[in-house]
Amino acid sequence: MWWRVLIIxxxxxxxxxxxxxxxxxxxAITAAMLPSLMxxxxxxVTRLLQLGLVLSCIFVWGVSTVDFVQMRxxxxxxxxxxxxxxGGVMTFTLFAAYCCNGLxxxxxxxxxxx
Length: 114
Fold this sequence. Notes:
By secondary structure, this protein is mostly helical. It has helices spanning about 1-20, 25-35, 45-75, 80-100.
């Protein structure tokens, strides 16, 4: 359970660092504070965290990847390593969204009284 919280928090902090790089302070603070919603154990909150990670993977990392690769190609600079790194970042973000599934699951141990 703790590793899910850690992975989701790192993914949101990585998104916040990306926003901070472009001097978007409000979005960076918002992205850094979103993992604190994991303390609310409700399925709607979990789905909102998942949606935030998936949308940021598409609209933040995907758009940035295309922009950075096009910029590198225009300068005749190597771009394959950049594309692999950004692909890894997108994969990590999607894995963090997948890890949100286990945040609200109940323990299926032995229960004598229901």
